[in-house]
């Protein structure tokens, strides 16, 4: 186990030797190393002045050294060298992240790195951004002697986002993947009775906060998956308790049935974070269940809430589509037929449903192609139906802006509503497919309206007694207005992207865009070892593109029609799009090895 500690003045000479051995590792000749020696020497007085730290292995041997130099808000990574025998063991990564952490504590907002050409791949992988400004030592005697020039990078150290600190008190948390348990309490006919998809989505429990202490999962998950996720997000010491259920979706009850595990998880003093609140979770967490606290998970109740907020005025950028609750299937068919004859598109919704399940968008052409309104209704799941006005997306804004957006926030236990931010979702035929979060994702024309209305919903939820994460989904109407369509009183796909963005910003520097893609099709079912190899290759390939790859849902890879849920992060939209496209192509191509060439 390698740990970082402050260097000691008495170690200065030995540390200089380590630095010179590390420099020589890249094959430089003796003349170049002699020219470098004055610049790379560490003196006893430098240890404190240059904020020098060392990495020490379990045997007490120093295997790396780093320094953080300068005065905030600008500082330099003066040294980062690893003993040649320890190269490739994560020592450099550990030291770099420690420098970034200390820079945040000192108030540094711009960290400058003058990299040896051989180390540029490392700094890119760590999230540093190459800049056009020449490195300060590019014209030094050492550079001239070796015919080489340093390459300048920069990073923007930032603390963990304020909302993320408020979410779990600034510390680690225990994550309970109770997706199936949450869904089951609504008994909606559009949800799978066996909750098989829900147990796949329970893997997202890895990302319920920026830094988990433990994951509690209903089904077994691949060990290689958790190891790769921890490596990509800089997590250590994450305990995994998986395989707690066979069929029953009640994960909280499964934990309570294991008294030793329940005592361990609830007695740790760490927050217990579920996908969503349930009565069983309340019993596990020792939290009273409030009757009706999830009432706005109902789409009709949420629609009523939106109407009451808009009745008070103050939200000119928001328009509410009309919605009708119908008494039966024939009443729904008559209303759908009338709207079709009038040339109007319609949205049919169930009261509940996740990821767009139970939501059907019907244009007049689609109704006619299906054989009429009654034929359409016969093909839908039984149960209560809502008929809603379709919000058109005419291109009158003059741009190709996003159609589906969402606002995320949460209400803490004291009843304070916190804003997390806005995201752009990918939705196909009413079904959620993924989302992107990060700086500049929500266009300027939508940001103010989305934020103000989302905050108003948060205040109403707090007053109603709800505590926990929530989002508000919107559809853009093409005239610069947003139509709210539902609330989700639980964690969501966009919330997972927000958690990962907060972690990467704190770990690698500010400015990450993060995209979650729920289903990336695989070209073949893979054994667990080959799935691990694929994910590791995707991580390496994305790093070469300047992106970060994190597998989010691995267990779908073992389905008859195999798929992966993934997270991709980058600091620019072009790199993000390129990385996602490459991941999809590589994942689909895995089947080629099993078929004809």
Summary?
The chain has 597 residues and is α+β, with helices and mostly antiparallel strands. 36% of the residues lie in helices and 23% in strands.
What can you tell me about this protein's structure?
The chain is α+β, with helices and mostly antiparallel strands. 36% of the residues lie in helices and 23% in strands. It is built from 21 helices and 23 strands. Strands 20-19-16-17-18-21-23-22 form an 8-stranded antiparallel sheet, sandwiched between helices. The protein has a 7-stranded mixed sheet with strand order 1-2-3-4-5-7-6.
Q: How confident is the prediction overall: mean pLDDT?
A: 91
In spatial order, strands of the major sheet run 20-19-16-17-18-21-23-22
Number of strands: 23
Relative helix content: 25-40%
Topology:
Layout: E1 3-6, H1 12-24, H2 30-40, H3 46-49, E2 52-56, E3 62-69, E4 74-82, H4 91-106, E5 110-115, H5 120-125, E6 129-130, H6 141-146, E7 151-155, H7 162-168, E8 173-176, H8 179-184, H9 196-201, E9 212-216, H10 223-233, E10 239-241, H11 251-256, H12 259-266, E11 272-274, H13 279-285, H14 299-311, E12 323-326, H15 329-341, E13 346-349, E14 359-362, H16 364-369, H17 373-378, E15 385-389, E16 404-411, E17 417-428, E18 431-437, H18 444-464, E19 468-476, E20 482-488, H19 493-508, E21 513-521, H20 528-545, E22 548-553, E23 563-570, H21 573-589
Helix pairs in contact: 10-20, 20-21
